[in-house]
Amino acid sequence: MQHYIDKISRRFAFEGAYLLRRIAGVKKLMLTYPELPYPGTALWRISRMLGWRLTNNIGSLGEADAVFRWQDATFGMPWPPGQINRRVYNQHVVDISKNRVDEVHRETFGYSLGLDGTTWSGKMLLKPVENARHVGEVITGPLKEIPKGFMCQRVIDNTSGVDCVMDLRVVFFDGEIPFGYRKFRPLSTRFSNTNLTASLFKPLLEFSKRELERITAFARAMKLDYGEMDVLRDAGSGKIFVCDVNTTPFGPPNNILKTDYFRALDLYLSAFASMMERGS
Q1: Which of 66, 214, 224, 239 has the fewest Cβ atoms surrounding its Cβ within 10 A?
Q2: Is the peptide bond before 34 cis (omega within 30 degrees of 0)?
Q3: What pLDDT shows up at residue 26?
Q4: Does the pLDDT at position 53 exceed 90?
Q5: Rounded mean pLDDT of 82-108?
Q6: What is the spatial distance between Cα 61 and Cα 198, in angstroms, rounded to a whole number?
Q7: Is residue 117 part of a domain?
Q8: C-alpha to C-alpha distance for 201 and 51, rounded to whole angstroms
Q9: Is the pLDDT reported for residue 253 higher than 80?
Q10: Are 172 and 228 in contact (CB under 8 A)?
Q11: Both 49 and 102 in a single domain?
């Protein structure tokens, strides 16, 4: 019950901040097409805190102060022809499937998570190709055939302590990685989206400079301008693997430390302002 009370309280707080900004004279407009951001997504929260009005009316393209291709889908619709006369963030990201992520990862890192499940002998992970399904099954290969809509991946040892795993969520704003989150989940529910706890981290405290360059190159190859990526570090090899790309991320993540929650909101605002300055 307390979880829902907190959720409703935060929603009212964001809407209140938005109204105060509008009353104070903020007239900015953000176009997200074809969909509007869900409440709770990072971009929705940014718009509320800044007092920017949201619309998904493509007719507002000329007057909008910022434009995003925004669609909560693995395979997105292309940007409408004849409607390209300005910067559209994520305009060219139309495929964030696990297959596409694996292909680009191999191109930019020289290795990837993907396996040929029909020839691999040993443990492997069976995952849906579709994004944001939050399911997976560790099985033993080889398989006679791969189920339609699935792919096979290496099993990464990202354990933290005895019975937890740690994912690293990287926040990306137009070529910059300003911050990230450590997300801890029980080993038994490692593929769920419910965290035991989460906390902020500075990128250079989790990644080397070379690794951050590779992550940025990967994001660029995916045509990503704005979004968040899930990264796993394998305890055995020390290698990092980008396993997920999200162009419509919720944030900050659930069960984040309260102090980090408010710090993250400030970091989102700062990163967004910097992106707008670079794009102007």
Answers
A1: 239
A2: yes
A3: 80
A4: yes
A5: 92
A6: 37
A7: no
A8: 27
A9: yes
A10: yes
A11: no
Q: What is the pLDDT of residue 6?
A: 62
Residue 105: both structure tokens together = 């990862």
Q: Is the pLDDT of residue 197 over 60?
A: yes
pLDDT higher than threshold 80 for residue 8: no
CATH number of the domain within which 181 lies: 3.30.470.20
Q: Six-digit token pair at 60?
A: 């507002």
Q: Which residue has the tokens 């990092």?
A: 240
Asked if 50 and 187 touch (Cβ cutoff 8 Å), the reply is no
Structure tokens belonging to residue 143: 């398989």
164 and 184 belong to one structural domain: yes
- What per-residue confidence (pLDDT) applies to 14? 81
Verify that 165 and 240 share a domain, yes or no: yes
Tokens 């901040």 identify what position? Answer: 17
Token representation of residue 257: 């430390």
Tally the domains of the chain. Answer: 2
Task: State the pLDDT at residue 101.
Answer: 97
Which residue from 228, 234, 236 is spatially nearest to 203, judged by alpha carbons?
228
